[in-house]
Amino acid sequence: MTVSSRALVELLLLGPMNDRRQLQDSPVLGDVWIAYAMKPAEPIDLLITPHKTSPAGPVADRIARQIGELKLEREKGQRADVAYLQGLVAARLFFEELLRVVVPMTQWWNDRKVQNSLKDYVDGDRLEETMQAVIEWANAPSEDAQTIAADAFAEFSSLDRYISLAAVILWAAHQEDQSLGAGDALARLKTPQPVVTLLGRVFKPILNKPKSKKASAATAEEPQVWQVSLNRKAMLALERSVPSVKGDAARTLFNVKCDKIRWAVLDSGIDGSHPVFKDKEGKSRIIKAFDFSNIRQIVSLDNLNDATAKERLKELRKVRKDLKADAVADLQKLAQDAQDDRPINWQLVERFIEIDPKTETKSGHGTHVAGIIGGYAGRDNGKKKLETNFQDGMCPDIKFYDFRVLAKSLQDTEFAIIAALQYLRYLNDRNTYLTIHGANLSLSIPHDVRNFACGRTPICNECERLVESGVVVVAAAGNLGYQRFETKDGSYEGYTAFSVTDPGNADGVITVGATHRYRPHTYGVSFFSSRGPTGDGRLKPDLVAPGERIESCLPDKGWGELDGTSMAAPHVSGAAAMLMARYDELIGAPRRIKKILCESATDLGRERSFQGHGMLDVLRAFQST
Question: How far apart are CA 146 and CA 136, in angstroms?
């Protein structure tokens, strides 16, 4: 039988199919194990959360130094790229580096019981016994025999699970055929002895490693790392929609002017040359633009090396041609700050990320989203009416901050988005008033229940901090409401509950599902719109807005229709901006704005976990305030 790498990891993490209650309690989360099991010989991009008593900078520095000391061979350009933000470290590590550098920095590893048990695995017969059970399961001749063999795993302790998984993946990483996943490599094993020998060679140096000066012979090493997760990929959550939510009626009746409101769009970028982003006098309403697609390279500890820093500067000049040679010193200063336990110096970072708003974008998604929030179709350069059927966006005079977190491709990392959220807070903290009033994230990161409590992922936590600082955060619910699954009995298609994605799972975020652009009562919630509730039982999405065939602007003065909760979210961003523009006392009160929008929504008569509180109704929101 062939052995799926994912099935192997799930069996060891969760136990037999009929007894899946126990998760392994090591600090390495399930998505990390699966990633390494599928590509054991390749470095994987990780997010490392420091222990609550350890600042991110020194933790990043220690990881970078110890990786350098291991001297594992990397292909050209395949750097570890250890970088840090507030409360977070990113690193691209081989599996052996994870085992030998990061895990020994955790509180779990340094627990005395774990340490004593680990010696039994290296010096005794326990590993051979557990590996024999794994090999028998992998070589079972049929599914029924495999099910019977899996019963042995029910007796595995959490440490058995960790060691067995580590041993199999480490073995696969050292095979000559680098294309083998852990499952295929395991299926070729007939005896556990080679695995036992290899694990002993890797683990003995860690167990015998001298403790730091802070830890005496009788005490455990001071913990530096709390947990390790994947640096997840973010997807884009892809005519008469403004009248459907009564945005134009509210704007006219209440004489709403949003020219004092500033909104951040965290997306693929806004085409600053498009005429819809000019005001009535022809001036651009995009105040500033920032490119976070290279933030990992900018704050990387690899820049302490002169040659690396100079090479990085060449790469960064592809986006910022005006960067001078002295910028190398700034890159090295940012890396040195990590060693010296200093917070990110965003003033230095600005030199590398601030770009001309007219810089070309590589996707039209962000431009389309911004057009829904605040496109002004009335005139081109204050002279000529635009030749399009597109009507004004929700707030045709609003100002924008363009945060390009997806500028390289349709996917980018969670690390880049978190960096942008932290920088947004920094911009607001520089003044006694809010520089940026709200943020739109038409982004989608699927939530894996085995790795995080729902709404407690790194990106959700960062969004909560932004809300607490007084910023309205609006997020797309995601487009996973209807999916196709492959099962052993064949394929299955259907609507999917609990499918809201991050950062929409964050409690303080206004999470938006999609409905028809002008017949919501007839067609209800869009088939693709992610359904709630959240994994921990909270109502999500919060409300729905038009998200089907929404016309808006595209780069190069283009126009077009797009579908998705990505298009629904900016309608709600516009509504929140209008409330703040009309009622000053709502500025800095994102939870109050969320309550107003939810309580004034129109019930579509659909299941609450599909529609939330209902369809966005801007006019009713104004009348209820």
Answer: 8
